[in-house]
């Protein structure tokens, strides 16, 4: 069967992490917005993953027709006495359409496990936020050839208990932890191999048609110089970009890697 990759949404999402003051963030969003305005067909969905306090201002700054906003986390409760937390509803009403969940930094520094992430995924969906669900192995796991098993478990725990209608809203980001912020990118073959595996697992769970329509992004030291090769793979539908999303020209270089 021929699978037409172009039917899936192509996405380049930035993850600013804990970078940029509010003013710097708004300036960056402005620059990205104006430098992407000329991309006539806007066939690539652009997402900016900002710190919580930037969401509302950045949402006002960009053209929502082609630049979407994401939070980088949300609370595991809907509302109430959870000091310091930000709910999915607050995020949605601030103007975000997406939320990054399960990033390896959240798993590592904040001990977020599969069960907690599944709760967050469900709360996000209840509040009409689309999760960008991250998965990926650490270096030891890859060396021990456990990477497929690790990613499968993360998907099973985080998103594979969702009903079909909900799963359709999910974007998957495969981010090998050893490639995040290290300058060491997965090879094109490694990325394709894992993305293909993920799509097969989705097909087993939800059927081939849903698997074919699910966008699977690659994350890990993606930059203008390697984006084109990574994105040319059949099962790579774009990128989740950390460091290179902090500079408008680098980010634009990755977005246009799809268009040449
Ligand atoms: C990330 O943190 O999601 C990421 C991919 O970071 P970087 O691009 O800097 O490796």
What would a concise description of this structure say?
Helices cover 42% and strands 15% of the residues. With 260 residues, the protein is α/β, with parallel strands linked by helices. Strands 1-2-3-4-5-6-7-8 form an eight-stranded parallel beta barrel, surrounded by six helices.
The secondary structure category is alpha/beta
Number of strands: 8
What is the domain total for the residues?
A: 1
Please compute the radius of gyration using only Cα atoms.
17 Å
CATH superfamily: Aldolase class I
Oligomer: single chain
Top CATH class: Alpha Beta
Tell me what you see in this structure.
- It contains twelve helices and eight strands.
- The chain is an alpha/beta fold and 260 residues long.
- It has a single domain, classed as Aldolase class I (TIM Barrel, Alpha-Beta Barrel), CATH 3.20.20.
- Helix 3 (88-93) links the parallel strand 3 and strand 4.
- Helix 11 (224-231) runs parallel beside helix 12 (248-255).
- The longest helix is centred in the last third of the chain and has 19 residues, at 188-206.
- The model has no long low-confidence stretch (mean pLDDT 94).
- The structure holds phosphoenolpyruvate.
- The site of phosphoenolpyruvate (PEP) has 13 residues, from strand 8.
């Amino acid at each position: 069967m021929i699978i037409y990759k172009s039917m899936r949404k192509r996405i380049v999402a930035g993850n600013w992490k804990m970078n940029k003051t509010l003013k710097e963030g708004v300036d960056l969003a402005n620059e990205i917005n104006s430098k992407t305005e000329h991309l006539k067909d806007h066939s690539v969905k652009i997402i900016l993953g900002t710190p919580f306090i930037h969401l509302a201002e950045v949402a006002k700054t960009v053209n929502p027709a082609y630049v979407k906003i994401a939070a980088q986390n949300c609370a595991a409760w809907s509302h109430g006495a959870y000091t310091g937390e930000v709910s999915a509803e607050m995020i949605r009403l601030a103007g975000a359409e997406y939320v990054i969940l399960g990033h390896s930094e959240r798993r590592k520094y904040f001990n977020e496990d599969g069960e907690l992430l599944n709760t967050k995924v469900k709360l996000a969906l209840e509040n009409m936020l689309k999760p960008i669900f991250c998965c990926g192995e650490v270096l030891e796991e890859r060396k021990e050839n456990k990477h497929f098993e690790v990613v499968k478990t993360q998907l099973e725990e985080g998103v594979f208990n969702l009903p079909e209608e909900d799963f359709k809203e999910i974007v998957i980001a495969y981010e090998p932890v050893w490639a995040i912020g290290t300058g060491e990118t997965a090879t094109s073959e490694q990325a394709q191999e894992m993305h293909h595996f993920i799509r097969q697992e989705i097909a087993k769970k939800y059927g081939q048609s849903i698997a074919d329509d699910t966008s699977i992004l690659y994350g890990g030291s993606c930059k203008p110089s390697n984006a084109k090769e990574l994105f040319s793979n059949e099962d790579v539908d774009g990128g989740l970009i950390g460091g290179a999303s902090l500079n408008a020209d680098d980010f634009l270089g990755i977005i246009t890697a799809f268009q040449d």
